[in-house]
Amino acid sequence: MIHKTVILLCTFLFTMTTTEGTAAEKPGSPMSAGGFTLGTSINDYSFISQKNFVEEVVISNIKGFRKGYITYGTCNRPGEILRIRLKYMDESYSFFEKLLKRYKEKFGSSPKFVGDPFGKVKGWKWEFKLEDDRRVTLTLQHNLENDEESIGNTIRLGLPDQLIAERECSNKVSVKADAGKPQELIVPDWDLLLPN
Hints:
Layout: H1 2-25, E1 32-33, E2 36-37, E3 54-59, E4 65-73, E5 81-88, H2 93-107, E6 112-113, E7 121-129, E8 135-143, E9 152-158, H3 160-178, H4 190-193
Antiparallel strand pairs: 1-2, 3-4, 4-5, 5-9, 6-7, 7-8, 8-9
């Protein structure tokens, strides 16, 4: 009888210790990363920043479209439009099918599939060459499930080589700006590197 009581008591204490340890070790929801905290104002931080290699403006009131994003260069081709992304007013899959049929009739019947393997995002991509060998890409996409992508029906039209040239130009400018700074061996600050 004493043996069973000791076993029960040990089991109870072990369960209490394990439960308390688990509750104490379980982290809260992370809100910060890299010294920045979600929900705070960007004006709360004093840091030196460089312009991104492209800028993006939001446009609205386009007939047939809900919203659009125009991306333009800031370094290699300042002010030149490099990508156009528009969200169609009609978000339905039946509208996407009608669009896809018309796109195939106009731009070719063999685009490359660029959706996901699970069918949440359906996308088709065409690629063209201009006379000066620049590439133009055209993508038609439908998505109503993956919130990491644009919701609804979207068209993307872009100049990928010019986007790469913008990034390279920006990187060269960054390297020149950093050239005068002393390079020190930095010991990782794990509190800063991990979200908390």
